[in-house]
Amino acid sequence: MKPDIKICGLKTPEAVDRALKRGATHIGFIFFEKSPRYIEPDLAAKLAEPARGKAKIVAVVVDATNDELDEIVSLLKPDILQLHGNESPEHVLTIKALFGLPVMKVFSVRTADDLKRVEAYVGIADRFLFDAKAPKGSELPGGNGISFDWSLLGWIDESIDYMLSGGLNKNNVADALANTKARGIDVSSGVESAPGVKSVAMIDEFFDAVETADAPVMASGS
Ligand SMILES: O=C(O)c1ccccc1NCC(=O)[C@H](O)[C@H](O)COP(=O)(O)O
């Protein structure tokens, strides 16, 4: 089955256009002010317009207040809220009730312990995203361009719908798909020429790599 592909941290019409043309199923906008990918909600709304009905629009927030969420939701009208902070299961339920949107809950992973609380969100979060835990000194909870040990996902129940992120790029995405049960992949730094600067050429290369990974292997000698 083809994986979902989320291109995250978009800031220009050119990058949105290329992501959509190549078949992105999700496009993400970052509402975390310290990020080089931060975008004002009204600008994100304009950029997202061509994606409506073609790709899911994802609002990425980190422990956002209800007022912040209210502004983002009313301006952007996202399809999904990506909760990239320390939101508790109770808080996720409250956000879902208040905004009526599906939630993708992020787990930042370095060791097996980081996955212990997944169970508490099953039946509450609509989807999970397993991302690499930020390295010491980074101010960003995501978008750090580093991977984690994917074998840690081995115990995740097959029924759990998750996307994988963290340092994915054209060179490792095929391995990521082959070695995990991820139903979707999410990339940011791996399609950037500098922090926050998306490269349409790198977006192309990333999709090329996914398509190659997805292509059926031809029988040899016949
Ligand atoms: O990308 C950011 O700057 C960011 C900041 C704060 C919270 C989340 C952020 N990114 C969320 C994403 O979904 C990224 O795509 C994910 O972390 C993977 O990033 P990368 O390792 O750079 O591909």
Automatic annotation (TrEMBL):
SUPFAM superfamilies: Ribulose-phoshate binding barrel. It comes from the Bacteria. GO terms for molecular function: phosphoribosylanthranilate isomerase activity. PANTHER family: N-(5'-PHOSPHORIBOSYL)ANTHRANILATE ISOMERASE (PTHR42894). It is an enzyme of class 5 (isomerase). It comes from Rhizobium sophoriradicis. Residues 5-208 form the N-(5'phosphoribosyl) anthranilate isomerase (PRAI) domain. This is N-(5'-phosphoribosyl)anthranilate isomerase. The keyword Amino-acid biosynthesis applies. GO terms for biological process: L-tryptophan biosynthetic process. Keywords: Amino-acid biosynthesis, Aromatic amino acid biosynthesis, Isomerase, Tryptophan biosynthesis. Pathway: Amino-acid biosynthesis; L-tryptophan biosynthesis; L-tryptophan from chorismate: step 3/5. Belongs to the TrpF family. Gene3D superfamilies: Aldolase class I. The lineage of its organism: Bacteria, Pseudomonadati, Pseudomonadota, Alphaproteobacteria, Hyphomicrobiales. Its EC number is 5.3.1.24. It catalyses: N-(5-phospho-beta-D-ribosyl)anthranilate = 1-(2-carboxyphenylamino)-1-deoxy-D-ribulose 5-phosphate.
